[in-house]
Fold Restriction endonuclease subunit S.
Amino acid sequence: MSWEEKRIGEVCILNYGKNLPKTKRQFGEYPVYSSAGLIDYHSKSLVDEEGIIIGRKGSVGTLYYSKKPFFPIDTSYYV
C-alpha cells in the first residue's frame, strides 16, 4: 500500500463553526469546542453526529475529536 499526499481540502469540506458567546450558552449535554479544544457545554448542538474539530485561530491546525454531537464555535472548522 502506498500513501498519496493531498491537501485536506481535497478529501473533505471544512465547515466554519458558528458564533456562540458565553453569554448566549445555555448549559446542556453538548460539548462546545473552540480552536483550544473543549471549552464548555450547551443545550443545543450545531453538528448532530460525531466529528473532527480543527483549530482556525490561535491553535491553528490543532485537531480534536468529538464522539457525540457538538457545537464548534467560530474559531474552528469542523468535518
